Every structure is written in C-alpha cells, then in structure tokens.
Amino acid sequence: MAATASRVAWSGRVLGGVLLTAGEAVAAGPAPTPSIFAPVSTPASAIRDLAMFVLGITGVIFLVVGGLGVYVLVRFRRRVGDDGQEPPQVYGSRQIEMAWTVVPLLIVAVLFLVTARYIYGIEGHRLPADALEVTVVGHQWWWEIRYPRLGIVTANELHVPVSDPARPTPTFVTLQSADVTHSFWIPQLAGKTDTIPNKTNRMWIEPQQPGTYVGQCAEYCGLQHAGMLLTAVVHSRDDFTRWVATQQAPPREDGDVQRGRALFVSLACSSCHTVQGTPANGVFGPDLTHLMSRSTLGAGVIPNSPENLRRWLDNPAMLKPGALMPAMKLSPEDLKDVTAYLLTLR
Ligand code: CUA
C-alpha cells in the first residue's frame, strides 16, 4: 500500500512535469495531483466522504485502544518494592465479554452498511441519454481510448467535457483489455476499475472542474506497469466541441513530407498503427492520426517533442525498456523524413 502510494505520487510528479513542459493539451486548472483527497468528480467525492467516515471511526478505535494500552502500561508498570506476586485474576465477566463482542459487531455492521450504500449509489447510477461514451482498452503498456459515437480514436489522454451541476454531462467509460489485467485509475475522478481480458467493466466520471488530472495503471501488468500513465483533460463545453472537431478532421496533407509519409506507409509502421486517410490501418499500437496533439510519448514516459519523437523512432527500448515497438533500424535520412512526417500529424 505504501509502495503504491509513493509510486503514484512519483508518477504524478513526473507526469505533472511532463505536462508543464509539453503544455499543448493542458487545460487551465489546479496542478495535477494523484490524491484521493482532492476529488473533482461525483464518484471520487463519494469515495472521499466514505474514506473520511471510515477513517473517523477507525481513528476513534485507535485512540481508545491505544490510549488504554498506554494507560495500563504506565499505571501498572513494575515498581521498586513490588512483591513479585501475580495480581488477582478475573474470569468470566459477562459484562466485559458482552461489551467486547457486541460493540465491534455493531461497528462492523455500520461500516458494512454504509460502504454497501456508497457502492450501490455509484454503481447504480443511470446513464443519461446525452452522456458521453468512451471505451478504454488497456494494452501492454498504453491506453487505447475510443469514442464510438464520435468516431475518434486516441491514446493515453482522455478528453471529456466538464459537467455542470445544473445540467450534468457525465462520461461513461467501458473498460476492456487487449492482453493482461490492467487497472484504470485517475484518483481525482473515480475509484480504480480493472480492465480484464474477455470481460467488460464499466465506470463513470462526472468532473465538475476543468483541468488536467493524472492517473496510471493500478494493477501490475508486466515490465512497464509503472510506465502506463494516464492523463484526463477536462474541457469547458466549447473547448470540448473544438477538441472533437480537431480529432474528427483528417490530418492535413503536407507536400513537404511526402517521402516520410511513403516510408511510413511502406514500412512495418503501417501494420501496427493507423493514420486516418492513409493505407496505414494497424490496430496493435496507438492510432497516430493526431499524434502531435498529445503531450507525451510512450504513455507518459517522455514529453512529446520533435527530438524525443526522433529518439523514440530510432530505438523505443532506450526510452521505455520492454516497449513492444521494435527499433526500426532506419538510416539517419529515413529517420529524419519519417519524423518530419509524424510531426505533421496534428
Ligand atoms: Cu497496465 Cu499495470
């Protein structure tokens, strides 16, 4: 648990830094934090409230038990001049035994009932007709993000509209896995939900504040489990409409990068990646149609800059050991041209 917390804090710092340098997709808002105590979305607020309630009860238990322990240690400590005899032993006090059986039973019953009420409250939330639907597919080691009704496919960055309390527009997320079990977790937006092979899970978020929120895979899934970072960008309604329009448009064709484009399409790149409007239609790796609209490469491991893109194409494993994309062994000139082409995918 402590290891998880420090890892999440670490990834939050790294991703926060990455976002600040790359900048492009960052909406205005408070600095990203992977803290469950700073919720901005309905399910996350419910989880924070429940956590505080449980912490309150267990805190009182801790104080009572710890206080009694300290009191007994001090009050009945060994003193100079003790006669060394055992104190009188008490057996079979019905009142004491009833008390330490019934009180914990009541506490457990309260914790159980309150928790069950929150779980059903979150899971039983009905989908309004105008809710945004997103499908997130966990891959080793990146996130595929699809908007089936909008015809958008992207990766590692979830873009959603802010939800106005007067007219809520929640986002419903369908979770699947392409390989092993991963877990989708953006602490400020909702609890974690696993993506499991051959099983579909669902969850929802309802962010009330525009901003950028960080998260990551929360289920060990192999070598790059820690390199499977997530960003959620919550837009104002107008900004979200603009984002959708940009993503739906095919990338602008640029005559200056024809050689790079031809290389990209003819090389193995096209069997793993899709770029709308080209013969490249692979689905094994991230859709690259609007690659340059994303702030990071390799699911959050490095900022998306021209130099990093060139290094990534040259040898992905140098930047993300274990990444399933092979080094393409391009000549320096080919590398330059393919990079130049990818830089036009805005
Ligand atoms: Cu994916 Cu851990």
Quick summary of this structure?
The chain is α+β, with helices and mostly antiparallel strands and about 350 residues long. About 40% of the residues lie in helices and about 15% in strands.
Note down, in words, how this protein is organized.
The chain has 346 residues and is of the alpha+beta class. The chain contains nine helices and twelve strands. The protein has a five-stranded mixed β-sheet with strand order 3-2-1-5-8. Strands 4-10-9 form a three-stranded mixed β-sheet. Residues 1-27 have low confidence and may be disordered. Bound molecules: dinuclear copper ion.
Helix content: 25-40%
- What is the number of beta strands? 12
Low-confidence stretches: 1-27
Strand ordering within the main sheet = 3-2-1-5-8
Question: What's the total helix number?
Answer: 9
Order of helices and strands: HHHEEEEEEEEEEHHHEEHHH
Residue fraction in strands? 15-25%
Radius of gyration: 26 Å
Question: What are the distinct ligands in this entry?
Answer: dinuclear copper ion
Oligomer: single chain
General form = elongated
Summing up helix and strand content along with how strands pair, one would put the structural category as alpha+beta
Overall pLDDT score: 89
The end-to-end span amounts to: 40 Å
Q: Main beta sheet, described? A: 5 strands, mixed
